[in-house]
Task: inverse folding
């Protein structure tokens, strides 16, 4: 198999096990990139085995481990983008994120550094872009956050900025996450196209089909969803495809002006806070 000719959406694997990367490449015949995060690192089989033996990592060891994983993946996807996430809990300030970002960006030639779509993350991303890094603004749950990402990163070149709206976590709490993708894409049509929308927190094949139909620039999906897609011979949404949100109520489109400065958007979202706490707790659980 190879990538269907008629899709422009890039397909990434969401995971931190290079073995999965190998399997997906052989199953789909292509893979455009990969996203990682601290939770996914904690689920890497080698890390899990080590923890089961009762051997935690030192801070240096876990970063070395993350680097090795990412370097192996980068070797498998030299032309793709690999996202690496900074450690950020509620008290991490932009300067601390930046210090990590500079290191992480140097690990491989094809990195995007992930920062949370929160105040300190946005500040850090602005400086990171000035220093010629590429960024992926993660844990995005609202159109206002996506507007703030747009405003904070104005002037960046295309390919330099991804925003990652998390649809599955919105579904999990009873909102139709797919609407957020559609709303952000609609809002960005008024802009200059410098931010690419990366559909994240994918739970099922229908999320992939809908995101392709909507024209998401990128989709990242876990191994089991890409496996199902491959086993079904890479189906694409038909002309008459329509996504069934089940009982999930819609997220209405908001008319938002993209011309404000990023500090003027209401960027707080409880799921961003929860997400940062969860990522940092999973990371800290690896360290002695
Ligand atoms: C995106 O880059 C994230 O790694 C990911 O999609 C998180 O999804 P989850 O809700 O399955 O943890």
Result:
């Amino acid at each position: 198999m190879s990538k269907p000719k008629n899709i422009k959406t890039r397909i990434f694997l969401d995971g931190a096990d290079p073995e999965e990367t190998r399997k997906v490449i052989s199953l789909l015949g292509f893979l455009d990139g990969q996203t990682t995060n601290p939770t996914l690192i904690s689920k890497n089989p080698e890390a899990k085995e080590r923890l089961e033996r009762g051997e935690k990592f030192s801070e240096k060891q876990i970063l070395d481990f993350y680097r090795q994983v990412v370097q192996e993946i980068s070797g498998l996807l030299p032309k793709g983008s690999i996202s690496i996430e900074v450690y950020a809990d509620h008290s991490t300030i932009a300067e601390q994120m930046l210090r990590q970002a500079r290191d992480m960006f140097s690990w491989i030639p094809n990195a995007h550094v992930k920062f949370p779509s929160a105040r300190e993350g946005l500040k850090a991303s602005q400086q990171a872009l000035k220093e010629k890094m590429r960024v992926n603004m993660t844990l995005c749950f609202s159109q206002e956050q996506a507007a703030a990402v747009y405003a904070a990163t104005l002037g960046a070149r295309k390919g330099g900025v991804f925003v990652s709206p998390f649809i599955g976590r919105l579904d999990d709490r009873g909102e139709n996450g797919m609407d957020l993708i559609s709303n952000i894409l609609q809002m960005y049509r008024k802009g200059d196209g410098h931010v690419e929308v990366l559909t994240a927190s994918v739970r099922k094949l229908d999320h992939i089909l809908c995101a392709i139909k909507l024209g998401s620039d990128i989709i990242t999906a876990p191994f089991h969803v890409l496996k199902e897609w491959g086993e079904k011979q890479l189906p694409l949404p038909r002309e008459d495809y329509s996504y069934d949100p089940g009982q999930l109520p819609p997220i209405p489109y908001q008319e938002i002006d993209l011309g404000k400065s990023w500090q003027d958007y209401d960027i707080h979202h409880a799921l961003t806070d929860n997400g940062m706490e969860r990522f940092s707790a999973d990371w800290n659980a690896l360290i002695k």
